[in-house]
């Protein structure tokens, strides 16, 4: 007679096999609001920075270029997470609200 270790066997009588679970896929409001705010303020800073560089506001173009670069740094994560939230809302495959990190 062979020895069989039942401690690691999977059977239909396991507790976890009978239970069902639901995936909590509710939209994280604070995270989406932050992403949209970064997107909007980044786009505004890029436009204002370019306008400042063209009109030489502040004495030279460096102030406007710096402001546009700062706007780009704000815009990129805002666009990325807003896009994830939009695609998760629309139900595209591979996108979920769980992909947005908590604040």
From TrEMBL:
Specify the protein's topology with respect to the membrane: Multi-pass membrane protein
Where is the major localization of this protein? cytoplasm
What does the UniProt entry say about where the protein is found?
A: Cytoplasmic vesicle, Autophagosome; Cytoplasmic vesicle, Secretory vesicle, Synaptic vesicle; Early endosome; Golgi apparatus, trans-Golgi network
**Where does it sit, as one GO cellular component term?**
endomembrane system
Database matches in InterPro entries: TMEM230, TMEM_230/134
Please list every transmembrane segment annotated in the UniProt record, as residue ranges: 32-54, 66-89
The alphabetized UniProt keywords are:
Cytoplasmic vesicle, Endosome, Golgi apparatus, Membrane, Synapse, Transmembrane, Transmembrane helix
What family does this belong to? Answer: Belongs to the TMEM134/TMEM230 family.
The function of this protein is: Involved in trafficking and recycling of synaptic vesicles.
Its protein name is Transmembrane protein 230
Annotated organism of origin: Erythranthe guttata
């Amino acid at each position: 007679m062979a020895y069989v270790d039942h401690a690691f066997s999977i059977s239909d009588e396991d507790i976890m096999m009978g239970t069902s679970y639901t995936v909590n896929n509710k939209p994280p409001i604070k995270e989406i609001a932050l992403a949209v705010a970064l997107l909007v303020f980044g786009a505004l800073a890029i436009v204002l920075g370019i306008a400042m560089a063209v009109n030489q506001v502040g004495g030279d173009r460096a102030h406007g270029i710096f402001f546009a670069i700062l706007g780009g740094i704000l815009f990129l994560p805002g666009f990325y997470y807003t896009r994830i939230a939009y695609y998760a809302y629309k139900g595209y495959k591979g996108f979920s609200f769980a992909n947005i990190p908590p604040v």
